[in-house]
């Protein structure tokens, strides 16, 4: 049987964000896959160089609506290290608390998306209903349901009251009971297991070779978790397990996320009950000394890395972000091999991709290669899309106006 290459994306109903996958199949069986990113580039790293460190904190938080706290905390940690700031212990506990609430919110969201991709929409409804509890807790602690704005250079912007701690502990009890129900479904429901087991297989060796991170790597028995490998915030004082699974397939990644929810509840209870007294921030200087560093955190999707270089001014000279989806995208191509075309949506969803997190560069092809300033780059993008892919609405609008009997503009 001959092979044929099928393009999926950049715009496709199975994709929540623009990306392109060229999938070569023989019949229904996938032979090879190549992926192409770059459709969500927003120039945020370059924009950081033109803003102050405080402005960058809020800009980088908007890299992603799901792991916004991870990005802002990662950047704040880097700046604090360059500036030599000692963040108060209470602030570190609050960062840990928000980080784990963000992980629960992300994993429950993923569980619903995964249920939808395999035709189990009841699971989508249930898990997203329970996710509302987490969103309300995040709003209670930070004032926002997304883009929490809790971090600042030198600590956090808001303290936690005793009343908030009591409410959060009660809600965590409720969420834990619901999660036990989901774990029971995942481990006993035959149709759920049959649909995910063996799909999107990637061996432990390939996961290590391709540097898969987060639940994607831990689902192939790679025990890499920045919270344990290189503790930050208050994780060094927390008692929790790094969850792994040896299934090496989509089912294993689902089990890892569900069991990680239980560990997150455990961490949150410790953070709430053992939170030390004291201030929640220290005064940070407006200008940051020259120096550079790398900061890493364990975002819900995996390791998130920020490189920051200061030059002694109030603006960074360089900011570089490597989100977890960029680390996992090569593993997706390997996971696709020998699966059926119908498995593509759940295999892609299994890494919980965030392409807007990932896109940090563009590729200039042809004679236009070379260094380009931000203004010239913006104009190049406008001109290129007008010439190659942009939709020209002028003629259509004129035709519509004529049909309506309106005078053309």
Automatic annotation (TrEMBL):
Ni(2+) binds at residues 64, 67, 354. The keyword Magnesium applies. Its cofactor is Ni(2+); Fe cation. SUPFAM superfamilies: HydB/Nqo4-like. Residues 118-287, 288-360 form the NADH-quinone oxidoreductase subunit D domain. Keywords: Iron, Magnesium, Metal-binding, Nickel, Oxidoreductase, Ubiquinone. Signal peptide: none annotated. Mg(2+) binds at residues 45, 321. It comes from the Bacteria. Fe cation binds at residues 67, 357. Its EC number is 1.6.5.3. Transmembrane segments: none annotated. The keyword Magnesium applies. This is NADH dehydrogenase (Ubiquinone). It comes from Pelobacter propionicus (strain DSM 2379 / NBRC 103807 / OttBd1). The lineage of its organism: Bacteria, Pseudomonadati, Thermodesulfobacteriota, Desulfuromonadia, Desulfuromonadales.
């Amino acid at each position: 049987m001959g092979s044929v290459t099928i393009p999926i994306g950049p715009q496709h109903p199975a994709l929540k964000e623009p990306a392109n996958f060229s999938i070569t199949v023989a019949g229904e069986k996938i032979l090879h896959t190549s992926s192409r990113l770059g459709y969500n580039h927003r120039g945020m790293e370059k924009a950081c160089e033109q803003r102050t460190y405080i402005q960058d904190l809020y800009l980088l938080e908007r890299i992603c609506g799901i792991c916004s706290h991870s990005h802002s905390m990662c950047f704040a940690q880097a700046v604090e290290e360059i500036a030599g700031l000692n963040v108060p212990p209470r602030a570190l506990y609050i960062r840990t608390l928000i980080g784990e609430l963000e992980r629960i919110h992300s994993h429950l969201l993923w569980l619903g998306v995964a249920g939808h991709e395999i035709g189990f929409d009841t699971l989508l409804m249930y898990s997203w209903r329970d996710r509302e509890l987490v969103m309300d807790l995040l709003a209670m602690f930070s004032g926002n349901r997304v883009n929490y704005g809790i971090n600042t250079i030198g600590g956090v912007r808001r303290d936690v009251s005793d009343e908030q701690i009591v409410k959060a502990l009660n809600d965590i009890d409720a969420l834990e009971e619901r999660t036990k129900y989901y774990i029971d479904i995942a481990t006993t429901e035959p149709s759920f297991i049959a649909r995910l087991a063996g799909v999107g297989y990637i061996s432990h060796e390939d996961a290590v070779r391709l540097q898969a991170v987060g639940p994607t790597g831990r689902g192939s028995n790679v025990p890499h978790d920045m919270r344990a490998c290189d503790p930050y915030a208050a994780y060094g004082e927390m008692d929790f397990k790094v969850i792994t699974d040896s299934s090496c397939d989509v089912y294993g990644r689902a089990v890892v996320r569900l069991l990680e929810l239980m560990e997150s509840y455990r961490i949150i209870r410790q953070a709430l009950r053992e939170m030390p007294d004291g201030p929640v921030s220290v005064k940070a200087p407006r200008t940051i000394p020259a120096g550079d560093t790398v900061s890493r955190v364990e975002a819900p999707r995996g390791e998130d890395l920020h490189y920051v270089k200061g030059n002694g001014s109030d603006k960074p000279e360089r900011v570089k972000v490597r989100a977890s989806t960029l680390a996992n995208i090569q593993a997706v191509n390997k996971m696709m091999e020998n699966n059926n075309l119908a498995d593509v949506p759940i295999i892609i969803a299994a890494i919980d991709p965030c392409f807007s997190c990932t896109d940090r560069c563009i590729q200039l092809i042809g004679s236009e290669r070379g260094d380009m300033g931000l203004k010239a780059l913006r104009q190049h993008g406008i001109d290129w899309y007008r010439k190659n892919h942009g939709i020209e609405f002028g003629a259509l609008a004129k035709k519509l106006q004529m049909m309506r009997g309106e005078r053309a503009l």
